[in-house]
């Protein structure tokens, strides 16, 4: 205890002596260095105070002092600094951001929103203030209000990647109900004489815990037809983490797998990154277990994603990789997308039609799709994918998939 006290006294004496001939700007610089490089908040606080003794009306230093108290968890001192600035009628964007952040991090959502409302009166196009407002509403499960704030940011700056990522996350939480219908057509040049047809009908319900989706699938191949029922859920653990859980059943084995299950942990990471890790399982006459991982990144109007599936068995390990680039034209449901990859993806609707052997064979694919909305509640999609697939060992063929989809939000 004595050593700690002596060290603290030394810091005070050192900063006082070294500050005698320094300007307030130089003291401010030293305070920032102590805070950001050394994480020494007490020393940074003393330097900031000395700078304010020289320049009491230096607003940036006062705001920084309030932030230092916030980071050091001295909430009372931080509030005292910010309330003093409020009495001086400071209108700087950074002041409102720092003050509202203090209240947000201490779960005082109502006070934080009150501060932001005042700040947005003077800084109506501040992306930082709107973003913090969106995060507060999101933390309070006020998803419609959060989406409104995010939409404002994208009106000012359509290339704000953080806002774009958050809008995608909110989309599934704000549209309470949706009904979708899809159709897929597959043509083979050599593998099969008959074309395949698939169709799907889905209903999604958004809840506070996350979305739940019920699906019914139909497929026609080899002159026979079959049906499948699927149930998917996306439980929300926190603003950062959510799960994917899925299961399916069909009595028409060969057209569909008898069972399919899946689970993933998804994370919305800093700097507009996202990640996923999980598994998928298909059962025909034997069990197929695949492990999956993906990493995504929002950059301006773009979303980039790389996904892999790894399938271990007794003799080798099968790999598949898919790279996707998506360009958003307007909102969360308006974009162009291109894909390129190798191997089989069990999450694609056509690959519900896999059997025990095809997942092991080599496939190259290249595809594109276009999604657009009409009056925000009518969502349309059209896509095409070319496959060059090894359908028997050392024997390859081409196939073309065309897909159409429509979803109604309400």
TrEMBL record:
**Which terms are listed as keywords in the entry?**
Signal, TPR repeat
Q: Write down the InterPro entries for this protein, in alphabetical order.
A: Beta-barrel_YaiO, TPR-like_helical_dom_sf, TPR_rpt
Q: Provide the leader sequence positions.
A: 1-19
Q: Cite the repeat ranges for TPR.
A: 93-126
Concerning Pfam families, the annotation shows: TPR_19 (PF14559), YaiO (PF19413)
Q: Which residues form a coiled coil?
A: none
The answer on whether this UniProt entry bears the keyword Flavoprotein reads no
Residue ranges occupied by any YaiO beta-barrel domain in the UniProt entry: 176-348
Q: What is this protein called?
A: YaiO family outer membrane beta-barrel protein
Instruction: Name the gene behind this protein.
Output: yaiO
């Amino acid at each position: 205890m004595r050593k700690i006290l002596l060290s603290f006294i030394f810091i005070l004496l050192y900063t006082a002596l070294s500050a005698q001939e320094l300007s307030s700007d130089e003291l401010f610089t030293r305070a920032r260095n102590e805070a950001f490089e050394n994480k020494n908040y007490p020393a940074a606080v003393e330097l900031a105070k000395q700078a304010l003794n020289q320049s009491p009306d230096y607003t940036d230093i006062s705001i920084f002092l309030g932030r230092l108290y916030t980071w050091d968890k001295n909430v009372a001192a931080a509030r005292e600094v910010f309330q003093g600035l409020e009495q001086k009628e400071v209108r700087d964007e950074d002041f409102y951001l720092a003050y509202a952040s203090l209240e947000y991090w201490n779960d005082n959502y109502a006070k934080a929103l009150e501060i932001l409302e005042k700040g947005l009166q003077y800084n109506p196009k501040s992306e930082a203030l709107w973003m913090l407002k969106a995060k507060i509403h999101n933390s309070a499960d006020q998803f419609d209000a959060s989406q409104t704030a995010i939409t404002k940011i994208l009106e000012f700056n359509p290339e704000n990647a953080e806002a774009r990522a958050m809008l995608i996350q909110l989309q599934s939480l704000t549209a309470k109900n949706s009904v979708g219908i899809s159709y897929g057509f597959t043509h083979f040049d050599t593998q099969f004489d008959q074309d395949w047809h698939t169709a799907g009908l889905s209903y999604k319900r958004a809840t506070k815990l996350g979305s739940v989706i019920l699906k019914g699938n139909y497929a026609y191949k080899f002159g026979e037809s079959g049906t499948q029922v699927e149930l998917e859920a996306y439980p929300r653990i926190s603003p950062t983490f959510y799960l994917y859980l899925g299961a399916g059943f069909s009595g028409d084995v060969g057209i569909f797998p008898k069972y399919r299950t899946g689970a993933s942990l998804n994370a919305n990471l800093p700097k507009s990154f996202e990640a996923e890790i999980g598994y998928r399982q298909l059962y025909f006459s034997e069990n197929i277990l695949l492990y999956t991982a993906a990493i995504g990144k929002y950059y301006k109007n773009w979303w980039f994603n790389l996904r892999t599936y790894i399938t271990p068995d007794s003799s080798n390990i099968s790999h598949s990789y898919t790279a996707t680039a998506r360009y958003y034209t307007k909102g969360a449901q308006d974009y162009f997308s291109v894909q390129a990859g190798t191997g089989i993806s069990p999450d694609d609707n056509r690959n519900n039609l896999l059997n025990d052997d095809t997942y092991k064979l080599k496939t190259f694919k290249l595809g594109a799709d276009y999604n657009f909305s009409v009056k925000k509640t009518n969502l349309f999609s059209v896509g095409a994918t070319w496959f060059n697939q090894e359908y028997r060992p050392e024997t390859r063929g081409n196939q073309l998939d065309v897909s159409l989809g429509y979803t109604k939000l309400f």
